[in-house]
Amino acid sequence: MKLPPLTIGKFTAQVPLVQGGMSIRVSTSALAIPVAECGGIGTIGGSAIPVEELQADIRKAKAATKGIIAVNIMFAMKNFYTLVQGSIDAGVDMIVTGAGFSRDIFKIGKETNTPIVSIVSSPSFAMLAEKLGASAIVVEAKEAGGHLGTTVPLRELFPEIRKVVKKVPLIAAGGITNGYEMAEMMDKYGADGIQIATRFVLTKECSVAESFKQAMLHAHKEDIALIKSPVGLPGRAIKTPFVEKLLRHTDLKAKECKYKCLKKCDHVYCISDRLTAACEGNMEDGLVFSGENVFKIKEILTVREVFDQFVSQAESMYKEPAATY
């Protein structure tokens, strides 16, 4: 059965698939554009990016596609509201935000007619986001990559949030690697769409260094670890030499803070430096955030091939569930 479209605010994606936003410079316009062209929602990772650079990338994406372009910005960023307003001024279609919770973001969304998509990991924050005016909610479970807000698996967490969110689309995220799982989450669990990130790193269009992709491609299950992030949340990453040192509690404290990017930072290490190093191909010193199930992904595809694979697999199993909101 054909998958239904996903409507968030005034925008409708013909394929209910959201590409997760990944920073720093992992998901840029180079990735977001082809995702939007395929009928999904392409997301630029906006955290820790200079505002002018982010605006230029948004304008590049908007000029290249009539599809939907979002920006993901962590609430933990010190210049969160500057990045949000800068993105809106540059013409972004919607703002996605997590790693903390902002009440004021919904006022900005209402004033500028910009849909706000909240990433949550608990029923209480899901209810609050819906009450305050979120246009959609992403349920991100413990299988996700990057910063984590829960230790609960997706198939346990999602039903609890589905019970309390009735008015806006609910999107499942964390560990989804194929269209069969997409259909399962939409059919069995009542998701209105899914969000995937790690799968899109392993595409030809993703602009990270080839060594970054190879680290993911050759990762085994035991190569994935939980680390302490300066953001104040645990994070899921691949065991690069840097992560191995972190797990051994080696002193990695930066001598000085160059970026001053976070509202609160424990300065165990500079996350901006480490994420940038990995993106540029330095696997010795870099931090590679990754989903729990990266070991299941065996090939680098084009974005179009990922979409075709997910849609064909999902539509071979999908049966429209009863309305939930």
From TrEMBL:
InterPro entries: Aldolase_TIM (IPR013785), NMO (IPR004136)
Entry annotated with the keyword DNA-binding: no
CDD domains tied to this protein: NPD_like
Pfam families reported for this sequence: NMO
Residues making up the signal peptide according to the UniProt record: none
Keyword Ribosomal protein: no
An MF annotation (GO) of this entry: nitronate monooxygenase activity
Assigned keywords, A-Z: Flavoprotein, FMN, Monooxygenase, Oxidoreductase
Name assigned to this protein: Nitronate monooxygenase
Organism listed in the record: Thiovibrio frasassiensis
